[in-house]
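Quick one, T. Sequence first:
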Amino acid sequence: MVRGWNQRYIGKPEKVHLVSTTDQVVAITQQAVREGRRIAVRGGGHCFEDFVYHSEAKVVVDLSEMRQVSFDTERNAFAVEPGARLLPCS
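Structure tokens:
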């Protein structure tokens, strides 16, 4: 949970939150802001730099469980959650 695609970067956050709903993301973000902690967001796990696993990131919000792809008929648009990947996980 603290290492991404690029194995050169290993994070040491105080907390990693594996979320599955927008409400969870909102609550975690609000708490981190109140506590003055730097937040990093992990979506599909494809970050090549240390944006997520940066040494200053204290709270990581992992969105990899949010991987639904659906079609909204009212808006006539597809919705792709941030954890969706082009290829299956190995």
